[in-house]
Amino acid sequence: MAILIYKGDRDITRWLEALKAVDDTLDIRVYPEVGNAEEITFALTWPYPHGLWNDFPHLKAISSIGAGVSHILEDKTLDRDMPILKLTDSRLNQSMWEYLLATISYQAMQLHRYAQQQSEKVWAELPPRGFDSVTVGIYGLGSIGKFVAERLAAEGFVVKGFANSSKEIAGVEVYTPSEVTDTVMQSLDIVVSILPLTAQTEGFFDQAFFARLKKGATFINVGRGAQLIEVDLIEALESGQLSHAWLDVLVQEPLREDHPFWAHPQVSITPHIASITDPLSVAAQIVENYHAAMQGNALHNVVDREMGY
Ligand code: GLV
Asked: Which residues, listed in sequence order, are joined to residue 63 by a DSSP beta bridge?
């Protein structure tokens, strides 16, 4: 029985330490140092070459190293019955909250407009805007989205949440797809995607979506890159329909060197850091799932393949 970690070229040291601190009897291997493939019974993975996990005949479950699992679900070679696990963690919620508090406050304070004015040596006051006059639309109300929506509302923002099913969130008006009117769309100053990547959300943020928003709105993507049609975003920014975009996730990561987003004055890029998994914070739930899988017990945070999260 052994855990195999696939982390690409990321440094694995803190992961090994954190998992061993929970259970020092674990046999943990780091790809490509697999040893005997028959001994691998649990996988822990970030994006990997599709088909990789089919080489281990005794594999019982595959756990993501993050909240998102699209990098696993995209692997169409995987056995349909293989349990796929995601992480839920208060540190993930908190770090996403910190990122969004920073970026949303920046936009709410219109600091992007002042940066533009500075580049033109313009000294001009814009009409002041308090948090309570800024409406933020949160797309995706899973554990992270719900946490962030609630905190934003507590800071005084007007918060509207969008999800497939209705939910009760303190201070947040929640809309299911059939309840979204043009008036609701027109009320949004800042749109945030914290959606999982599914067939329904792929390409969701496109020309038609941006056209429904208030002129000058901001788009922030911390979900997955493929939810955005990139050329449509550039067009919306250049026509003035959108004023600015913050992109922490991109269709292709790392963003290629000649991509127009790098130098676009209305685009701010961060390298997928909005919500980074802290090994110390999630090691216990991973080890718990590992032992459950070894003993044939119920697993936690199993992904619904049909739903895609
Ligand atoms: C980050 O993108 C995650 O999936 O946790």
From this structure: 44, 85
